[in-house]
Amino acid sequence: MEGPTIGGVIAYPVTPFRRSDGAVDTDALRALIDRLVASGVHGIAPLGSAGESAYLSDAEWCEVAEASLEAVARRVPTVVGISDLTTEGAVRRARFAERAGADVVMVLPVSYWKLSEREIVSHYGAVAEAIALPVMVYNNPATSGIDMSPDLLIRLVSEFDNVTMVKESSGDVQRMHRLHELTDGRLPFFNGSNPLALEAFAAGATGWCTAAPCLFPAEILAFYETVRAGDLADARKQFYRLLPPLRFLMANGLPTAVKAGLALQGLDVGEPRRPLLPLEESRVRQLEALLAQL
Amino acid sequence: MEGPTIGGVIAYPVTPFRRSDGAVDTDALRALIDRLVASGVHGIAPLGSAGESAYLSDAEWCEVAEASLEAVARRVPTVVGISDLTTEGAVRRARFAERAGADVVMVLPVSYWKLSEREIVSHYGAVAEAIALPVMVYNNPATSGIDMSPDLLIRLVSEFDNVTMVKESSGDVQRMHRLHELTDGRLPFFNGSNPLALEAFAAGATGWCTAAPCLFPAEILAFYETVRAGDLADARKQFYRLLPPLRFLMANGLPTAVKAGLALQGLDVGEPRRPLLPLEESRVRQLEALLAQL
Amino acid sequence: MEGPTIGGVIAYPVTPFRRSDGAVDTDALRALIDRLVASGVHGIAPLGSAGESAYLSDAEWCEVAEASLEAVARRVPTVVGISDLTTEGAVRRARFAERAGADVVMVLPVSYWKLSEREIVSHYGAVAEAIALPVMVYNNPATSGIDMSPDLLIRLVSEFDNVTMVKESSGDVQRMHRLHELTDGRLPFFNGSNPLALEAFAAGATGWCTAAPCLFPAEILAFYETVRAGDLADARKQFYRLLPPLRFLMANGLPTAVKAGLALQGLDVGEPRRPLLPLEESRVRQLEALLAQL
Amino acid sequence: MEGPTIGGVIAYPVTPFRRSDGAVDTDALRALIDRLVASGVHGIAPLGSAGESAYLSDAEWCEVAEASLEAVARRVPTVVGISDLTTEGAVRRARFAERAGADVVMVLPVSYWKLSEREIVSHYGAVAEAIALPVMVYNNPATSGIDMSPDLLIRLVSEFDNVTMVKESSGDVQRMHRLHELTDGRLPFFNGSNPLALEAFAAGATGWCTAAPCLFPAEILAFYETVRAGDLADARKQFYRLLPPLRFLMANGLPTAVKAGLALQGLDVGEPRRPLLPLEESRVRQLEALLAQL
Prior knowledge:
Four copies of one chain form a homotetramer.
Chain A: E1 8-11, H1 26-39, E2 43-44, H2 58-72, E3 79-82, H3 87-100, E4 104-107, H4 117-130, E5 135-139, H5 141-144, H6 150-159, E6 163-168, H7 173-182, E7 189-191, H8 197-202, E8 207-210, H9 217-228, H10 232-252, H11 254-264, H12 281-293
Parallel strand pairs in A: 1-2, 1-8, 3-4, 4-5, 5-6, 6-7, 7-8
């Protein structure tokens, strides 16, 4: 299979909920996606961690996938996040995403019981073989409870033809080194850890998967263009300006913090779903100040 | 609220699935529960970690809860495990368990996004206030991704009247010391870490939550009686005999290993649900040898 | 080589320094050791972690070794702690201890550079082969920076005839289980983690290496006799009474806390050596209260 | 106090020992330092971790300090490493280094007992106030057992006038971000983790403290010039070429691996001091191949 054509800044929309009844708010979702596409990001990734996919029912999940793909309308590539506790559920969602028009699926194994390497490979195989789309393997031990080493990530790329990209969210740049080394720099890897954005690009990342463009897309894209042009001194300067809000988003949880930020900017996307609680008022004020300083 | 009347060996049945279509096998479930009750265990806890509750649909979950309560038929107390990614789902399950006749619910928060202490307290509050049953707070960082300190566990007990017991599965005996100290020994705590059984009782645990009685109930109960009688030398001797199979169960995952063991004993409970895979053949042979040595 | 004859409560004296000039105060050392022997402890272990051996010059180390052995005067066995950054230094100290009349040496590898297993084995071999005394292998990752697994500890016992005992201070009771299992209960192991005293004895420890008898020997010995008699309920009761001061000693550093406690009891042993600082006044008051409650 | 004038590649010589008697080989030390200075490195740092200072007697330590300063002969700045278990010993060494002509001292607290923040500050204060030289605070938790947070490092810089630089060897680039943020980029920090060289410079490091120039100075310096010129793409290319030998040095211990490499290059610096053992023959072959590929 050919390598992917995606790269750059891949934006992760949150999933809006109506304040009245907690249902998915597809109008707000479309408005958010329009804003993101208009800002110039290079891809849209609904149903990722930021999209609270873990807290959606199957029906809601399908609704968000369809509405997102319609809203993007192929203006940029769409990467649909697939994660489900059961393999059967993950396969079902991947097939749905393919039929609905996704360009790529990003697959995160989440599990209650610790999975063996054999079980992880079998899970990815079942999903990859069920579809013809390119698959991005997603390592995010902090949320999924499963930590896949660079060697395992590359094993998955080797074993399944349509597994062609990696997203690394452990925040450990040495793993990116290892991905580069083991594939002579041929495997595209994406960084999913916001406070590592500068160093991940220094280490050769193909793109940055981030929910931050929901709140400050222009600054994120300007930084990306600078780092891509290879101007290290200026990139560093911009990065250190971005770092306080990036760190705030990570420390407070992406859906929680991004939803609060969007409300500050006049786009009401509702509250995160419980057990997540809305951002505390004192922190809303901090976020407001951080955004104002950009 | 009065203290609980449960204690001793609380047995965790696995959830059998039919080999034909993967559906819940309530006949095998009843057979397993009958066996457990007949063996003399002091309580039955369906829909725990060993019961693969994380991999069940809502309908299946209710089916298992009802079938288990019918099978136990109040011969011993039944502790129903409640865990769901959303607070709404956890409340719904707790109410269902109460209506179906549970004696206690054991509540484990599982979350994709890391929860703040405020969010954990709010989650427990929502569940506890929705029912009148006693609630056992369950700490199991390895499977749930949430680690609740002894201080937080006790805060939950203090804040909600019907939260009256703790199950500690971190495997750290110092946390049990802390639970004892902070409550002058008045808070009943249960041990959920099999290889800590001896030391947990030494430290004053009220009971042992374990799936091991599915495979060797007589030995587990004999050990419990010995330790309860305070005969430390004999208890140690028995414990070291139990330790190799207990450690095997933990190392291979409870549903995976217990299902393989039940098949060896002639009770077909099917396979664990994918992404979990059946125990590898070489390990089945190890388990067979370990069980034979008891 | 025959098994050791030591066991029970092995007491660790601190090393007194004169307030006037910071030199070793052998008079106070003798007074402390006399007190310990008179209290009924089953062994004395000078120059352990509590004895600040890491902060002594070679000459001071020899002075303390000799003075301690003279003070004990064979009334109980003496276990001399040997740790030095270089193998040559460790060998020199072990030979000195042997000549001076030690019954056992307890050897802790400390290293600046992380040692490989090959280097650890070679270090122990050099020390063990230089003397005829029984050697106790000492694992204390928190202070030494080297963590030896139960398998490595047992390898050392197997390879060198006079390495016949283990002291485990990691605080992980599962390692004691492993030591028991791998040797069918034949290897004597000592517990060096104060807050694990109850569980270590439950798991079969031969003895408890502790500085606590410097401050409250009668209570430590009474607990030991109870646990040895196998009366679990009473042992637990005594243990929970001992736990707050034991935890205080560990949290504040043994030399720092024990020296403050001895001053409270009227035995002036001076200050710990810098960079260690004397216990802060507010904590001295806490310690006073904890000791008063015993 | 004015900011330091050091920066760039600070080279760490190993300490040669004679094969005949294990004594310090000052001739080989001078030869090594001459080679390093001639290669163009921007500073020389004797008696660091790579210099096995932890395994030297006081007399040897002074001998190495003097011989190194004589060999450098002010052609580049000399940074003398100061670490001793006692504060008194650290002060004595710092004073010796100052009298002998050091330009900077790099101070690493090493301790057997875990030090409180109060004790660390007091230790640094004693050393800093004993001399007039600039002090570089050195954080290296892996070897020293003490982990100083960025906040503590900056506290030390604030409290003592001549503490003006930080060396961070934890390998965590987020700590460098924090150092930059807390001081608005005004505090010079040096990277001491070889596999982080690229990202540390991306994050704004002033210099790289490394023993690698003992073996391949030209490649290290060429990388530094490229990264300094801000050519990110070329820097990355060079970095990935350097990474395998850098990682080898780290994985095998700097003195062990560098000494083996120098022998391969015809400069006999003897063996590391026991408990460190010479590099195993199979690994010497690996190192040879890695060096040949540069």
